[in-house]
Amino acid sequence: MTGSPTVNAADIGARPHPPLPGGNAVVFEKVSMTFPDGTEALSDVDLAIGHGEFVSIVGPSGCGKSTLLRIASGLSSHSSGDVWVDRQQLGYTFQDATLLPWRRVQGNVELLMELRGYPAAKRREIAKEKIELVGLSGFEAHFPRRLSGGMRMRASLARSLALNPNVFMFDEPFGALDEITRERLNDEVIDLHCREGFTGIFVTHSIPEAVYMSSKVVVMSRRPGRIIDTLDIGFPFPRQPDLRYEPEFSKLCGAVSRALRHAIEA
Amino acid sequence: MSDPIVAAYKSTPLKAQVERYSPVPLAPAPSVGRRLVLSFAPPLILGILIVAAYALIRADLPAHRQFLMPSAEGLWSQAFGIAAFRSELLMRALTTISIAITGLAVSIPVGIMLGIVMFRVYALEKAVFPYLVALQSIPIMAIIPLIQSALGFGFLPKVLIVALFTFFAIPTTLLLGLKSVDRNILELFKLQNASWWVMLRKAALPSAAPTLFAGLRISGSLAVIAAIVSELFFLSGKGGLGQLLMNAKIDFKYEQMYAALIVASALSITVYLSFNWLGNRLFAHWHESSDRQR
What we know:
The structure holds two protein chains of two kinds.
Chain A lengths: L23 E11 L5 E11 L3 E5 L6 H9 L6 E6 L4 E4 L11 H11 L4 H14 L15 H13 L5 E5 L7 H18 L2 E5 L3 H7 L2 E5 L6 E6 L14 H19 L1
Parallel strand pairs in A: 3-7, 3-8, 5-6, 6-7
Antiparallel strand pairs in A: 1-2, 1-4, 8-9
Chain B lengths: L2 H9 L2 H7 L11 H29 L11 H9 L2 H38 L1 H16 L2 H12 L3 H13 L1 H11 L3 H9 L4 H36 L9 H10 L3 H30 L11
Helix pairs in contact in B: 4-13, 5-6, 5-8, 5-9, 5-11, 5-13, 7-8, 8-11, 9-11, 10-11, 11-13, 12-13
């Protein structure tokens, strides 16, 4: 982790987490999930994500990518198999920023710390640092409705970062943003990933976004979702925006795209 | 929330704040005078037209029916101009408003509690809602004599009538608001293992507050009407404006009846505007339904 202000674990009632199999941050073993109506969403998903990795999950719509994330975060429960995640300090962003519209940016960034029982002075201090980190200094007193879509997303990121997450899950966070804002936020998330050292799981529809951001791209089949391909992306972090126009980058995008086409036919 | 941050924010003019992030300069805000004209002129003109129509219709009435529509001079010489009547009017208005407010003081907390309980226990919502609708569909005026027989002629039965009139809108609007809280926001709380109470306090209630306020506005303006209606049936004792209305009719003092009507609607409008003002103050900065931008 970084040199950000730390909170005594005992202060907020945190318990140390037992180590995960193989020293990984997230492990899925033969995870299946069937909805109450009998629809099979996931079947036998095996996936291990090491500490400090940034993994993107791509797949046809409705293949259970988001369900996988919801299971990992504990929002949904799986029907069979085993899931290990250190959820003690979990970051999670939804498809939209999910800010509380009646709170100012400051109050929104403090929210999760408030729910965890951080003392007020600590909350202020950490919020200030994280707001600065996402480039929202000067907007502390704005209400969300007065911010642009990209700024709302930044506030949402700051809110999660405040807990110093070990694992940060992104559920198609930038789908509603314009291309330019999206690429900027891609860079910022990678930058945050490098600085804060969290393990990232990123669900997306966009192949270039997945390749650009990740150390590993996981391709899922259509429903019921299985993992049918895993591609390692070897480019060093942090990544440069021009990487998107390198031939090597295009090749990898092509490979993911082929795997995805295969996934849809499979 | 830190006060210095908010203070610094509020001291920057709104236009300057927005322009910092706006690609084009903003059109100048309309001047205060222009805004006053725009907001006051239309209702004023319509009001003048209504008074003119009243005068025309009155002039058309045969002389022996003109008592139904008193003239402005009549209203002054027979009602508002008489000092004793003015103080009676004031006393009665105070009585009416205190009945209305006490009634609201009963129906609002009870209604809010019922709304929260219905939100918490789905079975209770299913059980109670049909009876709420039934309560609303009973012509409450028809059960006033029953309330009178049971509780007598004092302050309490009138308060009960106001509470019955104003109750429905409160639990229903609150429940609607509570149920439409953003699901993602609730999941955000769940991810932190927040308890139901914390979610209610920090997510559902603030999110439902503007909807509840729409209900409070309806209840508020109904409360004065209810207080007056309740008194139409209670002619003994020191009553409010409703009693004055009935007495004026019996005594054939139509000017005084009109005076009571005018004061009654002024009260109703005041209560409505107060809730409006409070709602705007509380929610304008974040909720779309508010009139003002900030």
